Amino acid sequence: MSSSSPQRRRGDTRQRIQDIALELFVEQGYEKTSLREIAERLEVTKAALYYHFKTKEDIIISLFEDVTRPIDELIKWAEQQPRTLETKREVLRRYSEAMAAGAALYRFMQENQATTRELSIGETVKKRLYRLVELLRTDDGPLTDQVRCVSALFTLHAGMMFLQHVEGDPEETRLAALEVATDLITQAHHEDS
After folding, report:
1. What is the spatial distance between Cα 88 and Cα 182, in angstroms, rounded to a whole number?
2. Of 17, 108, 126, nearest in space to 71 by CA
3. First and final CA of the chain: distance in angstroms?
4. Which residue pairs from 24-28 have beta carbons closer than 8 angstroms and sit at least 24 positions apart in sequence?
5. Residue 60 class from Cβ within 10 Å (0-12 exposed, 13-18 middle, 19+ buried)?
6. Where is the HTH tetR-type domain (predicted)?
7. How many Cα atoms within 13 Å fall on the side-chain side of residue 75?
8. What is the 3-state secondary structure (H, E, C) of 123-170?
9. For residue 11, what pLDDT band results from cuts at 50, 70 and 90?
10. Using one digit for the tens of pLDDT, what is the confidence trace for 129-181?
11. Of 6, 105, 108, 4, nearest in space to 51 by CA
């Protein structure tokens, strides 16, 4: 039992570093935040911080990998499913939940697009989005239906990125965006509705 306790503490420290770093990146910007400031906010030495992460980029990449793991799992799941309306609705639902769980990181990425593009995560985001679009798109439907399928995905993004300042509960905003996205995907599948 005592052997698992140090592992848990290390994991908690890693998580705390990620949380504090993201908080500072959002407050001050990625470029203006130093490892020294992260260590100070954590009340640890820079050496203790270096034990877990050597650079700010290491921190943001690890955060990105942790937060987006459910999206990778969703893509793998969806690739094994039939391309039915029900599967696509489930993809949208799970994607919406994954985005909500990583809201702070996605907002950081939105507000720091240049930094995101420069880091290796930018290309990964683009590849995931293209893959999700392909999983949602109708293969042979009219162009308007293909646009509906793509728009469904980006409706979820709009709900998170551009409606974050709307009065009310963020969960209600997420659910409203999911409802609109689901309506769009349903409209694109006339024969399945």
Report:
1. 9
2. 126
3. 54
4. 25/56, 25/60, 25/108, 25/112, 26/104, 26/107, 26/108, 26/111
5. buried
6. 11-71
7. 13
8. HHHHHHHHHHHHHHCCCCCCHHHHHHHHHHHHHHHHHHHCCCCCCCCH
9. low
10. 999 999 999 777 899 999 999 999 999 988 887 776 677 788 888 999 999 99
11. 6
Residue type for position 165: H
For residue 3, count other CB atoms closer than 10 A to its CB: 6
pTM of the model: 0.81
The tokens for 33 are 């935040």
Let me know how long the chain is: 193
Residue corresponding to tokens 């392909």: 134
**pLDDT tens digit sequence for 52-76:** 999 999 999 999 999 889 999 999 9
Residue 10 pLDDT exceeds 70: no
Give me the residue label for tokens 């509960």: 169
